[in-house]
Write a structure and sequence with these properties.
Elements lengths: L3 E6 L7 H14 L4 E6 L1 H8 L6 H14 L7 E5 L5 H10 L4 H5 L2 H9 L8 H4 L1 H10 L5 E4 L4 H17 L8 E4 L27 H9 L20 H9 L2 H12 L5 H27 L2 H30 L2
Parallel strand pairs: 1-2, 2-3, 4-5
Helix pairs in contact: 3-13, 4-8, 8-9, 10-13, 11-13
């Protein structure tokens, strides 16, 4: 049997370029080599968006369309929605009985997010305890690999620690999944910070060509380039980061030289990267339209995924209950 890979994504907003480069491109490759499970983490979205759930179903639907348009193939991957498989919640409850509270309080993301997102009250058990639900999500399927960014490594280590604690308290059930680091761990947004729905600085996969080009026009560049004749430093320019992702080696080198000598202005630099980005996105936009026009197909994909995921989840929970003698 092929090794298994598992990953998930919250439907807390529209999918953006960071999601594509940081996760979906990896998933597309991995699904050809591994027994792949990819899930929509809709319960996780409640950990920080519990006060307004009005668009949760919409975001879930749009996320699934983006996945399929990006090449996540239901014939190669198990695609499902977290809340459709209740074993996630059951294992989360059982794990919450054995995890020491200090393990959660030392989670670096817990305090960082509370500092960054001031407009929401994140002093809830759901937010403090979401790494426990995350551990349940992962260990339920006993994956060999979990694709993550570097910022998620502490969470994955906590997952391994919870698995070890369970195995030592009862009988060994859970393996220790290894990380599979993403190629682009950090994609910058139009304001120069990490691209994130929380910062409202994203280029969304569902954006139209005019919207993408307009967002690029507003993107920050080297602050030293006040006038067209000012020389710049491309290494501190988010637009140059996009060139390094999307443009050819020759273009990257040319932009590097031209920016430093003021042979090219920021407007032309943005237009060039916009051209290659549109070329990359165009096939996805076309595919997206087809899936958007066929919601029944999306329902069929997640129902088939639910059946496959439930088969594995049910088997794991039998082992858990036997180990705990409950």
């Amino acid at each position: 049997m092929a090794s298994r890979v598992l990953s998930g994504m919250q439907p807390s907003g529209l999918m953006h370029l960071g999601n594509l480069l940081g996760a979906l491109d990896n998933w597309k490759t991995l699904q050809t080599e591994y027994d792949s499970f990819f899930f929509v983490a809709d319960w996780h979205a409640l950990s920080s968006n519990y006060a307004d759930t009005s668009r949760l179903k919409e975001f879930t639907h749009e996320l699934l369309i983006d996945w399929l348009a990006a090449g996540i193939d239901p014939n190669k991957s198990t695609i499902f929605i977290q809340s459709h498989v209740p074993e996630h919640a059951i294992l989360h409850v059982l794990f919450s009985m054995i995890i020491p509270i200090p393990w959660l309080e030392r989670n670096p993301t817990y305090k960082e997010k509370q500092e960054e997102i001031k407009e929401k009250d994140l002093s809830t058990y759901g937010f403090l305890g979401y790494p426990v639900l995350q551990a349940a999500d992962i260990l339920l399927y006993k994956p060999d690999l979990v694709p993550v960014g570097k910022d998620q490594l502490p969470h994955l280590e906590l997952t391994r620690e919870i698995g070890r604690r369970f195995n030592s308290l009862y009988t060994p059930v859970f393996p220790e999944p290894k990380e599979y680091l993403t190629k682009f761990p950090k994609v910058l947004g139009i304001d120069g910070r990490k691209m994130s729905k929380s910062y409202h600085n994203t280029i969304n996969l569902s954006d139209t060509e005019p919207t993408v080009r307009q967002k690029l026009k507003t993107m920050v560049t080297d602050p030293a380039r006040v006038r067209r004749t000012d020389k710049g430093n491309p290494e501190i320019c988010p637009v140059y980061d996009f060139h390094k992702i999307f443009s050819s080696e020759d273009v990257i080198n040319q932009i590097n030289t031209d920016c430093r000598t003021a042979a090219i202005g920021c407007i032309d630099c943005k237009r060039q990267v916009g051209d290659v980005m549109v070329e990359r996105f165009s096939p996805m936009w076309e595919t997206r339209e087809k899936f958007s026009a066929n919601p029944k197909h999306i329902q069929e994909v997640v129902e088939e995924g639910r059946k496959r995921a439930s088969t594995v989840a049910t088997e794991t929970m039998k082992e858990v209950q036997e180990a705990m003698k409950i």
